[in-house]
Amino acid sequence: MGNRASARLTDLTTKCPSIYIGPTYIDPIYTKMNTHHLCLGILSLGEASGYEIKKAFEETFCHFQATSFGSIYPALAKLTEQGLVSFREETQEKRPTKKVFTITPAGHEHFYQTLLKSEPAEQYRSDFLFLMMFAHLLPQEHIKTLLNKQTENLEMELGILERILTECQTLTPGMRFTLEYGVTGNKALLKLMQQRSLQLLNEIDAARSPQES
């Protein structure tokens, strides 16, 4: 999975058009990122199909952005209608015709303005942390399973990010910083999991009455 992520990011960045230089910077009025903006961001790196955009979210951008597959195609349709992206159709043998999307000059301008106006806030969503919030209601074995699974997920994501950093030769400084941010965060979380998992289980067990434990 890591190799595919690295290859995909390399493929996108090597197809990247000349760097777009926008107008003079002005103080932003912040807006929030949505699927439309995220699709434009990926297409600013190079042309891609809807499936390739989905894979980019799952692999290359997985540690800081997410969107549902069902929201990508409606977003691309709207962006096409607005003239921010265009597409061509590619015939595939024994498979449906594939649409390959490309960002337009108007799309570059729109995305640039979005970058200027987007609030640098982190909206952290974690089903794991929600489950841990109510871990006192769960059986000990189930809590152990959740902790082990989360550790595996963090290790897998860390491996993907480290492989991209090592293998991809076309990273921009900002891309490298973003990946290093993810690597640093995952390492810190793994350290916390190692230090606190057993302690958490013991604390929950001690807090329960003899009848509950």
Instruction: Give the tally of structural domains.
Output: 2
What percent of residues are in strands?
5-15%
CATH superfamily assignment of the largest domain? Winged helix-like DNA-binding domain superfamily/Winged helix DNA-binding domain
Assign a percent range to the helix content. Answer: 55-70%
Extended strand count:
3
Which strand order do you get reading across the main beta sheet?
1-3-2
Order of SSEs: HHEHHEEHHHH
Instruction: Give the CATH architecture of the largest domain.
Output: Orthogonal Bundle
CATH class of the largest domain: Mainly Alpha
* Low-pLDDT residue spans: 1-28
Overall shape: it is: elongated
Protein architecture, described:
It is a single chain. With 213 residues, this protein is mostly helical. It folds into 2 domains: 1-123, Arc Repressor Mutant, subunit A (Orthogonal Bundle), CATH 1.10.10; 124-213. It is 60% helix and 9% strand. The chain is built from 8 helices and 3 strands. The chain has helices spanning 2-14, 35-43, 50-58, 69-81, 105-117, 127-133, 140-167, 173-207, and strands spanning 48-49, 85-92, 95-103. The protein has a 3-stranded antiparallel β-sheet. A hairpin with a 2-residue loop joins strand 2 (85-92) and strand 3 (95-103). Helix 3 (50-58) crosses helix 4. The radius of gyration is 21 Å and the shape is elongated. The model is unreliable at 1-28 (pLDDT under 50).
